[in-house]
Amino acid sequence: MSPNFTNLFSVKGKVVLITGGSRGIGEMLAAGFLANGAKVYISSRKAGACDETANRLMEAYGGEVIALPADLSTVEGCESLAKRLADLEPKLDVLINNAGAAWGAPLETFPEAGWDKVMDTNVKGVFFLTQKVLPLLRAAASKTSPSRVINIGSIDGLKSAAFSTFSYGASKAAVHHLTRFLAAHLTGEHILCNAIAPGPFPTWMLSTGVGFGGETEDVDWDRVGKGNPSGRVGTPEDIAGLALFLSSRAGEFIAGQVIACDGGVVGTS
User: Fold this and answer.
1) In the chain, at which end, N or C, are there fewer CB atoms within 10 A of the end residue's CB?
2) Distances (CA, A) of 79 to 10, 45, 115, 175, 188
């Protein structure tokens, strides 16, 4: 058997669905796939934000980004998104379950609403959207070119966080283990399931936690990065590069793994 290293990291021509794709890590991932020749669908709850991001990405990188807004905290929302995608595409090469919610409150007063909202979006939505798009993933899957599911977890699901985000950490730990369960059932069908656990990235969610009020531009991310073993926060290239690897020929022998993309937070602690 002669090795073939041509296009080892290519995702050109692949059809990719990224949830939570209108901002933050989802937008970073969408940009990376688009810049490397994939056809990208993005979803988020707010239709306007979804459309704006799709247009912004196409202006920056060319290619094709299609907005499919949906509320993925409900089974009905997952079914709706899967049906609309199936009306447009015969197959799906890569599903990236990135949509997520967080809630912070003291332990003594943490509300049921903060528990349910986070669990519904971060765990239930991941499972049921994957279930609903399985026919499209199966249509794309083959022994020579598996389809992929990449679940976006968090290092907060691998270690305790400094924030009082109890349901968020628990939900991300659940996402990591759900990924292993999905891999156990789907790897034999040539659908490879893995999870990425991001550390600090310049997103709206982290911005609210560190006191930047949700702003991601013109704020002192260097201050946040100083607390990281690598001395910085993550970049779009960091997170997109890992997802591209997992989605390409280079990642075809990896299944059921949770990979921290965090500058060393987990691995050096």
Assistant:
1) N
2) 30, 14, 23, 20, 25
Could you confirm whether 168 is annotated as catalytic? yes
CA distance 177 to 153: 10
- 43: three-class secondary structure by DSSP: strand
User: Which of 171, 231, 242 is closest to 205 using CA atoms?
Assistant: 171
120 DSSP 8-state letter: I
CB 93, CB 16: distance < 8 Å: yes
| Residue 62 placed within a domain | yes
Asked if residue 5 is part of any domain, the answer here is: no
CB 225 within 8 A of CB 11: no
Residue 245 is predicted with a pLDDT of 98
| Phi and psi torsions of 203, nearest 5° | -115, 165
Question: What is the pLDDT at residue 257?
Answer: 98
- Count of domains for the chain: 1
Residue 269 has what pLDDT? 85
Instruction: Give the structural domain span for 81.
Output: 15-261
Q: Is residue 125 part of a domain?
A: yes
Active-site residue identified among 168, 201, 212, 221? 168
pLDDT tens for 94-121 read: 999 999 999 999 999 999 999 999 999 9
> Which residues of the chain are under the pLDDT cut of 50?
none
What are the phi and psi torsion angles at 197 (to 5°)?
-110, 95
Q: Under 8 Å CB-to-CB from 61, ≥6 apart: which residues?
A: 31, 34, 35
- Whichever domain contains 236, its CATH number is 3.40.50.720
Q: How far apart are CA 224 and CA 190, in angstroms?
A: 40
